Write the structure tokens for this entry.
Amino acid sequence: MRHAEAFPGPYGDPSPSSDLGRPLTPVGRRQAHERGTQLREIGFIPELVLISPAMRSGETYAAFGPFSTTAVPQVRQDGRLYECGSESILEVLQETPENFNNIIVIGHNPDLYQLVMDLAGHAIDDPDKSILIRGFPVASLACFTVHGPWHALARKQAVLTRALCN
């Protein structure tokens, strides 16, 4: 998932620390809450949440709301999910212990969109998923099923099951 809408950085300050500290807007909080509701409706309960070190990624996850009253997912922040390339995000997923089945990654474009497109392969030709061709705006979500161990995850080796990009 791409983080929800965030406030822009301070005018004239392009520094990484300024970008990392950008919080969600009120619209972004609503977007994230809606995505959390949609995930609960399809029965997705994360066991592992991987977030970038950017404030907006953590706030996106927090705005989802609780998924379960019993199971609390493990949350890991990883710097490789922030402006390090789609290969870095794939590496993070490949390092995931096999005891985790339901994982959500909350990150950033363009890297996240590139990984989604790489994993999806020709699935974007499916009319229900062709929405990905138009891009991956804030609060977009792509759901995949992965057959096999995480360490073997590779491009075009996952099944795109759902794309929410509005």
